[in-house]
Amino acid sequence: MGNYLTTIERYHDYHSLICEMVQSMLTGLADEKLFQSQDVVIETLDELFRHYPFLDIIYTLDAQGIQNGPNYHFDDYKAKIDHSNRGKDRSQRPYFEMAKKTQDVVFTDPYLSTTDRVLCLSGAIPMRNEQGEICGYLVIDIDLEKTISFLMGDNLRAKFEPFFKGIYSLISFGLF
Q1: Which residues have CB under 8 Å from 13's CB, separation 6+?
Q2: Given Cys at both, which of 40, 42, 58, 144 links 72, Cβ 3.0 to 4.6 Å?
């Protein structure tokens, strides 16, 4: 619980930066043509994940809020495809209701993910066809703790943490 509270506190410190970053990603990906070729989607998302390792899930909804594509989630530094949620009604989700009302990029408040039990937030943006009509929505879920670590530059520290713990353990053992 303490870890969640720390993450929420840091979220408030980095809120505007997180929103700007996710908005940039959503705006860059919100092209219905991108999602017509699964190979192009995977290639694009693999590249995106290399730069933003805090991404959790990306998926699309139709104009009524029904998930019309797979979940693209990230595992072992590669985009993976999960078709199990295709057809799921997400029209009551806060991000969909907000995006439908504002017709712009929206963000939820942090919440506990039901899939992997981490604090996350969702961002959504309408996707428009060539006539400018909304043809669906793009949704991105990000792992909030990983996002904050990314912004704070903690990724490098986290990689060396086991090494430092080992050294401290040896020093402690030597003192005994």
Answers
A1: none
A2: 58
